[in-house]
Amino acid sequence: MENDHEGFISNFKAELVILSPGRINFIGEHTDYNNGFVLPTAIDKKIIFSFRKNNTDSQCNVYSQTYKKKIQFDLNTLKPSNEEWENYILGVMNELSKLTDKIRGFDCIVKSELPIGAGISSSAALECGLAYGLNELFDLELPKITLVELSQRAEHNYVGTKCGIMDQFASVMSEDHKVILLDCKTQEYRLIDGNFDPYKILLLNTNVSHNLAESEYNTRRAECEEAVAMISESYDKVKSLRDVTKSMLDEFKEKLSPLHYERASYVIEENDRVLQASESLEKGDLQRFGKLMYASHNGLQHQYEVSCKELDFLVDFSKDKTEIVGSRMMGGGFGGCTINLIHKDYINEYVDLVTKAYKEQFDIELTSFITVPSQGTSIQE
Q1: Which of 17, 249, 10, 42 is nearest to 125 (CA)?
Q2: Closest to 229 in 3D by CA, of 244, 214, 245
Q3: Could you give the CA distance from residue 105 to residue 90 in angstroms, rounded to a whole number?
Q4: pLDDT at 142 over 90
């Protein structure tokens, strides 16, 4: 089988190469599926897709260089797989099949620069890159926002994660040196200059992925919906936590369980932090921006309860360092990365310090990289 893969790769002549980036999110975690605000951008690490038509009607081959595995499928008999990574591919194909009948047989090689489980949305990059590439290869003429939405539906329907729109939106719609203020309720967005000088964006990867991550993600979503259901009995305009004010929530403090109250409080406060953070960034007030990042982590740790001891250790370790203005966990939680705004002259010293401390505490190797706000999914020229 390995020889079969080698033959497939060595004889491959791409007609089209697509670059689909991972994403970071400065603030606004778990707000997207609550119709709230987020502040993400794509990064300079990508998944690279090489495409060619294979002159069949419906036979498709996608080879993952990350997993060293090939998935073969027929466009006429799409169904979910038992292999999770395959469902990101098959889910996109299923959603595309509902929108167009123009796709024919194709081959694709997928090569990823994104660490899996780091919370930088390798899944959205995979979905969006495939959709974007097929849109170009077969001249489907689907607008970018349609590619974003169908990629999100693929994750809901084939993978089973009821994610919000942020990851796919950031992966496709980002621009170089910009940060996106996105309203997940209306999909209206504004690009803000991502000028963090003299600070850099440092990601510290815990290299842990607690198996709670996916089940708890859907649980948090359900908890928020349960709070909304109770509040909407009295306020019929309330369709999501986006429509709930803090004073409105406080009216229900005795009726809601403490858990539901804390979950809802976090989301309402986090939405407010995103708006304050975007304002701070526009004014160049990075000290205030960083304080809001710390406040976000505090809420994720104590109110939303999606952090873990490794993430908390890294955020706490940064707090007394004047060269770091902000730090928080990023992504779904229970592992993955912290995102840190750190003075460019302090990076090497700090990475050495924190790597050693983390190893002593958990006996796990920390990995790190610097990243910059980058272009969304695009054709490689």
Answers
A1: 42
A2: 244
A3: 14
A4: yes
Which residue in this structure is represented by tokens 């955020």? 315
Residues in CB range of 307: below 8 A, 6 or more apart: 297, 300, 301, 329, 333, 334
What φ, ψ does residue 113 adopt, rounded to 5°?
-100, 0
Could you please report the per-residue DSSP string of 240-301?
A: SGGG--HHHHHHTTTTS-HHHHHHHHHHHHHHHHHHHHHHHHHHT-HHHHHHHHHHHHHHHH
List Cβ neighbours of 109 (8 Å cut-off, separation of 6 or more).
8, 9, 12, 14, 49, 50, 62, 63, 65
pLDDT, tens digit (0-9, with 9 covering 90-100), for 178-187: 999 999 999 9
pLDDT digits (tens, 9 = 90+) for 330-363: 998 999 999 999 999 999 999 999 999 999 999 9
Catalytic residue among 44, 139, 167, 176: 167
| Short-list 155, 62, 150, CA closest to 111 | 62
Active site residue 167: yes
